[in-house]
Design brief:
Largest sheet: 6 strands, mixed
Number of strands: 12
Strand order of the largest sheet: 1-2-3-4-5-6
Order of helices and strands: HHEEEHEEEHHHHHHHEEHHEEEHE
CATH architecture of the largest domain: Alpha-Beta Complex
Shape: elongated
Number of helices: 13
Radius of gyration: 34 Å
Structural class: alpha+beta
Low-confidence stretches: 220-249
Length: 365
């Protein structure tokens, strides 16, 4: 009889409630399966029953060579939970046994005691003989417990690979929310661009980066965004940002520039002021600044207006001519503005936070 046929037979008897206790599980299920997997069940050199470990006995210890066992199997009565046996784990770990299996007849749980994590996290497979097709169940048992694979180390190697894969999935699941929190708390240029493009597809024109940044930092429900953001979005027919920003607004920003306390009507005006003042002091400043300024998808500043936002002609309205004929993009998130001011300080050999002190709203600091 093949292993799949044996499993099919066992599954039928489980459904019929034929197995009443732990002895039934050992003698009529585990022994049959081990034999099909190539283990010499009645050879004590290969399969040791009631294996003594300190003051305890383990139901099965499987040997592929003299010395330490390769597998421990602990048997439970039918319908007994498989949450793990703390002592079995401890004994397997201290004995150097790489594989531990808990069986209640229907459920087979395969553990790697020496790995990291909780008992559940160290379980590499839980096999339910009633839920799996017989051939699939046979494949699992052969992968982890066939005698030649245990002897060659393939079974343990595959189990470790499965454990590591599960650990990566688990770690990724925990890290994704953290990554999202970091992205929205300190909005990345690419994330802002993606949201802006989606807004354009919905309403036909683009919000400013600052609007997106404020939205992400506050993280209201999408339905609340329209209610809380009363400032109209900038359309393609709007006048350039710098002209509109000349009027005093609640968005004004105070900063210190080389010992002077200054104020500008908004963040982009403050950035322009700083760049123009530094350019006045050094004719090469803009050239060097432009080399270091580009982000992942934007140059931010260029002598050619179309190159500020490469391949984005619809964004040219968000550019303005500044010192010495350079074009600066004005649709910049505050986090990027801070990065540009830091670069400007490096080019001008100034210290950010001492020679130039400025705190952009929602910049992530």
């Amino acid at each position: 009889m093949s292993l799949a046929s044996t499993i099919e037979s066992i599954a039928g008897l489980i459904r019929a409630n034929s197995y009443r206790n732990e002895t039934d599980v050992r003698e009529a299920i585990v022994n049959r399966v081990l034999q099909e997997l190539g283990w010499q069940v009645y050879d004590p050199a290969a399969v040791r029953r009631e294996f003594a470990v300190d003051k305890r006995r383990v139901d099965y210890a499987l040997f592929t060579s003299p010395g330490s066992p390769s597998v421990f199997i602990e048997v439970k009565a039918p319908n007994i939970g498989d949450d793990g046996d703390r002592q079995l784990f401890e004994y397997a770990f201290h004995q150097g046994v790489p594989f531990a299996i808990l069986v209640n007849g229907r459920d087979w749980s395969f553990y790697l005691p020496a790995e990291q994590g909780s008992y559940l996290e160290r379980r590499v497979q839980k096999l339910d003989l009633l839920e799996r097709e017989a051939k699939d169940a046979a494949a699992v048992l052969e992968r982890y417990l066939r005698v030649d694979r245990v002897k060659s180390g393939e079974a343990h190697s595959d189990a470790r690979a499965d454990y590591q894969s599960a650990a990566r999935i688990r770690d990724a699941k925990g890290a994704i929310p953290k990554a999202w929190d970091e992205l929205v708390s300190e909005p990345d240029e690419l994330l802002i661009e993606l949201i802006a493009e989606k807004v354009v597809s919905l309403i036909g024109f683009r919000p400013t980066d600052e609007q997106i940044e404020v939205f992400l930092s506050a993280r209201p429900k999408p339905s609340e965004f329209v209610k809380t953001n009363q400032e109209p979005l900038i359309s393609r027919k709007t006048q350039p940002i710098r002209e509109a920003s000349q009027q005093p607004t609640s968005r004004s920003i105070a900063f210190r520039f080389r010992g002077q306390n200054l104020n500008q009507p908004d963040a982009i005006s403050a950035l322009i002021f700083i760049l123009e003042k530094l350019a006045d002091s050094d004719s090469d400043f803009m050239e060097e600044f432009a080399k270091r300024a580009p982000g992942r998808r934007r140059n931010h500043i260029s002598r050619v207006r179309a190159d500020v936002y490469p391949n984005k002609p619809d964004l040219e309205i968000y550019t303005i001519k500044v010192a010495n004929g350079w074009w600066l993009g004005t649709n910049i998130a505050n986090r990027e503005k801070e990065r540009l001011v830091r670069i400007a300080c490096e080019v001008a050999k100034l210290q950010f936070g001492r020679d130039i002190e400025i705190a952009f709203p929602n910049s992530g600091d």
